[in-house]
From TrEMBL:
Family: Belongs to the EamA transporter family.
Main location: membrane
Domain (EamA): residue spans on this chain: 13-147, 171-317
Chain segments annotated as transmembrane: 12-32, 44-63, 75-94, 128-148, 168-190, 202-222, 242-263, 270-294, 300-319
Protein name: DMT family transporter
Organism this protein belongs to: Symplocastrum torsivum CPER-KK1
Localisation: Cell membrane
GO CC, any one term: plasma membrane
Keywords associated with the record: Cell membrane, Membrane, Transmembrane, Transmembrane helix
Amino acid sequence: MFSLPHVEYISFWGELAALSAACLWALGSVIYTHAGARIPALELNLIKTVVAIAFLIPTLLLQGITTPTASPLPLYLLLLSGVVGIGLADTFFLEALKQLGARRTLLIKTLDPPTAALLSTLFLQEKLSAIAWCGILLVILGVAWVVTERVPGVSSSASTGGKSATSIPVWGIICGLLSAVGQAIGAVLSRQAFVQTNISPLWSVLLRLFGALLVIVLWLLVKRYPIGLWIKPLVTDRDKSLSRILGAVIFAAFASTFLGIWLQQTALKFTAAGIAQTLSATSPLFVLPIVIWMGEVVSLRAFVGVLISLVGVGLLLSLG
């Protein structure tokens, strides 16, 4: 039987797992940003979802985790969570990566916890304290301060003729916000499902991915989306661009979607939920050295905005 290694000698295993997950999500976002320049967001989401499922199924078999025997309602909630939180939200997330880049998109993702908290207040009757509201306000302020910064080199609206300009990429921000709302809805649905059943976390991930796959395929069929148009130019490319891009996407799907989620579940097992979620939300910090190494100029305003948002996330999740 395949299982996690025995790690009692590591006193901070949960914290390390959470930070590792955040690092992998940051790395995956950078890879998806570059892949998204060639692959449309919907197709990219399809590829990463299929790859993650391909890794999850043998993992479940190796671990010997049996098929869930829960009542139908929690299973339907998990499927719906995948439809909204992965199928729709991740497509918007990948489009936001294309428009905004990994750094600003990951910062917008810090809106996920406060959005989920607000939805839980509205639909699950969960109460928020004054400190929680302060945390939500800090996250919103930090995100707003960074994403509204005018950054040279961002493609603006049609008025610029598609040329590089100093602008606020409105469509990218909208996609990022839609992604945050969708992932928050998915989180609330998943939480409601876990309240009603003790289903394995890996099985819950698989069900969510199947829900995502279903809506992506339906989306492609309804739109009569021409799949694979991006492949032909790469096939004729002599420098093997197709194999490099597909290899990078498969690696990102393994690292960020499959391994990242597994590490997140490990963190929740070995440390307090509030600590695990707070450390898992530090992707915007990990992405900074990556994009700086790749040549992006990061302003002091961007650093401060990230720190403000993460303080807000910490305040919010410390109450969990």
